[in-house]
Specification:
The complex is a heterodimer of chains A (about 90) and B (about 350). Chain A has helices at about 30-40, 40-45, and strands spanning about 5, 20-25, 25-30, 60, 65, 75, 80-85. Chain A has about 90 residues and is α+β, with helices and mostly antiparallel strands. In chain A, helix 1 packs across helix 2 (about 40-45). In chain A, about 30% of the residues are buried. Chain B is mainly beta and about 350 residues long. Chain B has one domain (about 5-360): 7 Propeller (Methylamine Dehydrogenase, Chain H), CATH 2.130.10.10. The chains are: A alpha+beta (about 90), B mainly beta (about 350). The interface between A and B is medium-sized, with 18 and 18 residues.
Chain lengths: ~90, ~350
C-alpha cells in the first residue's frame, strides 16, 4: 500500500534531489500530505501553510486531476496513485 | 576592517563587501527569486550572523541564517516563524528582524505580515507569537496599505529591556514597557489625513521609525506625509518636516552613535512618487530635525525617478558612519562620510527592498 509523490524540480533540494517519493498513507490527500510533512518537513511547509492549507500558487494533482476541482484536501487518493506537486504560473 | 552590505531585492539577496567603504565587490543573488523584505547582521554572538527574511511567491516565507558571511545558508526543517493553529492566521512574510539586548544574544524579534510580533529565545531557531499585541482590541481595525498589513519596525529600548516600540502600516506606533504584556498606541500628533478624523488614536500610516543614538526616548518617524520626532518614547510627536522639500517618504535612519543626527529620502507626494525636482538626494539633520541639508555629491545629476523604500536606507556601525541606500530601479549607493560624498555600489539590480551594513 503506497502512493507516489512527484516532486517538482524547484523543491527537490528539500528531499536530497529526489524526484519521486514513496509514502505509505493513502485514502485522502490530507493523509498523504501529513505524512510528507512528518517525513520531509521542509517540503511539507513549501506545499501547505501552517494552517494546513495548500499554498495559493502550488497546484496538486491526483492521477492528473487538479484537487481544487475535486475535494481539496479530502480528495480521494487510492493505493498506487500518483500525487503530483507543481508550482503554478505566477510572478514577474 | 571589512564592511558587509546586505542588499535585499524582490528577486534575491546580494552581498557587497569592501575594505575601505569605497570599492566594492558584489555577489549574488542568494535565495534567488525570493523576495527579501528584511535583513540583519547580528554581531552579538562569537561570529557575525547574517539573517534574511525570504519569501517565495509559490512556496511561502522563511528565515535564513549564515554564520560564514554568506558562503552558506541554513534554515531549520520546521517553519521558524508560524502562527499558532488557533489564530487561523498564515504568515505572509517577515518585514523586520531585530536582534534583542546585547547581553541576551539568544533573543530575537521579528515583525510580520499580517501585523504581529514574534519573539525568539533560542537565537532565532523558533519564534513565539507575542499574544498580548495579537489580542489587542485595536487589531480588528488595523488596516492594510498597498504593501500589505505589517509590523515593519521593531525597536527594543537599549536603556530598558522591558520597553519596546513597534510600528505598523496602517495602525501606527504601539509601545510596551512591561516586556510585551500590554501595549498602548503612541500616535498623538501624527496626522492621518486620509481618515475622516485626521487625528485618531491609532490608524496612522507610519512608514518607518528610528531611535536616536544619544537619547533612547527620542524617536524619528517618517509617515505617509509627515516627518515627526518624539521626545517621550513615542507617546507624542511633533513635526520636523519644515526644513525638508517634502514630507512624504518611506525611510528614516538615525546615526549609530551620535545623537540628533538622522537621514531620510524625501519623495514628492503620495500621488507623485518620484524625488522632488527629480533630484537624487538624501537629506540629513544634525539637530534632531530642526534643520535639514540635501546631500547629493556623487549621486546622479540627471533626472532621477527611483525612490527608496522604508528599509532601503541604513548606516553601518563605524564612528564616522557610512550611509547606504538602494532604489526601486535597482541602484545602490554608499557614503563613507555620513552623506558628504557618494558613490555607486551596484546598478541594474532588481527592486531594492532593504539594505543593512555592518563591520565584520
Amino acid at each position: 500500500m503506497s502512493v507516489t509523490v512527484l516532486v517538482p524540480g524547484a523543491l527537490r533540494g528539500e528531499v536530497d534531489g529526489a524526484a519521486r517519493l514513496e509514502v505509505d498513507a493513502n485514502g485522502t490527500l490530507d493523509a498523504v500530505l501529513r505524512e510528507v510533512n512528518e517525513r520531509w518537513p521542509r517540503l511539507g511547509r513549501r506545499i501547505c501553510d501552517e494552517q494546513g492549507r495548500i499554498r495559493r500558487f502550488v497546484n496538486v494533482y491526483v492521477d492528473g486531476e487538479d484537487v481544487r476541482r475535486m475535494a481539496g484536501l479530502e480528495s480521494a487518493v487510492p493505493d498506487r496513485a500518483e500525487v503530483q506537486i507543481l508550482p503554478s504560473v505566477a510572478g514577474g | 576592517m571589512a564592511t558587509i552590505l546586505m542588499i535585499g531585492t524582490n528577486k534575491g539577496l546580494f552581498l557587497a563587501r569592501s575594505d575601505d567603504r569605497r570599492t566594492w565587490t558584489v555577489d549574488g543573488p542568494h535565495a534567488r527569486m525570493n523576495e527579501i523584505y528584511a535583513v540583519a547582521v547580528d554581531r552579538r554572538g562569537p561570529a557575525p550572523r547574517l539573517m534574511a527574511s525570504v519569501t517565495s511567491s509559490h512556496f511561502g516565507p522563511s528565515l535564513l541564517t549564515s554564520d560564514d558571511l554568506g558562503a552558506t545558508w541554513q534554515e531549520p526543517d520546521h517553519a521558524p516563524v508560524a502562527f499558532p493553529k488557533e489564530t487561523g492566521a498564515t504568515l505572509e512574510r517577515v518585514w523586520a528582524i531585530a536582534p534583542g539586548p546585547a547581553d541576551r544574544p539568544e533573543r530575537m524579534y521579528v515583525g510580520t505580515q499580517p501585523s504581529a510580533l514574534f519573539r525568539s529565545d533560542d537565537g532565532g531557531n523558533t519564534f513565539d507569537l507575542v499574544r498580548p499585541l495579537w489580542d489587542h482590541p485595536h487589531r480588528p481595525d488595523w488596516g492594510a496599505g498597498f504593501g500589505g498589513q505589517a509590523i515593519h519596525t521593531v525597536l527594543p529600548d537599549p536603556s530598558n529591556p522591558e520597553a519596546m516600540v513597534v510600528a505598523m502600516s496602517t495602525g501606527g506606533v504601539y509601545r510596551t514597557v512591561d516586556s510585551g504584556e500590554s501595549w498602548k498606541p503612541g500616535n498623538t500628533g501624527i496626522k492621518a489625513y486620509f481618515m475622516p478624523d485626521p487625528w485618531p488614536e491609532f490608524g496612522q500610516c507610519v512608514h518607518k521609525v528610528a531611535r536616536d543614538a544619544g537619547d533612547p526616548a527620542r524617536l524619528y518617524a517618517q509617515n505617509h506625509h509627515g516627518v515627526y520626532r518624539s521626545d517621550d518614547g513615542g507617546e507624542s510627536w511633533t513635526s520636523i518636516a519644515e526644513g525638508l522639500p517634502t514630507d512624504f517618504g518611506f525611510a528614516i535612519v538615525a546615526h549609530p552613535h551620535r545623537g540628533d543626527t538622522v537621514w531620510n529620502f524625501p519623495i514628492e507626494a503620495d500621488g507623485v512618487r518620484f524625488p522632488p525636482e527629480r533630484r537624487c538626494q538624501v537629506y540629513r539633520s544634525r539637530d534632531a530635525g530642526a534643520t535639514w541639508q540635501g546631500l547629493g555629491n556623487g549621486l546622479p545629476d540627471e533626472p532621477f525617478f527611483g525612490i527608496v523604500l522604508r528599509d532601503a536606507l541604513c548606516t553601518d556601525d563605524q564612528e564616522v558612519a557610512g550611509v547606504y541606500f538602494g532604489t526601486r530601479n535597482g541602484e545602490v549607493y554608499a557614503s563613507p562620510d555620513e552623506g558628504e560624498s557618494w558613490h555607486q555600489v551596484a546598478s541594474h539590480l532588481p527592486d531594492v527592498l532593504c539594505v543593512r551594513a555592518a563591520t565584520v
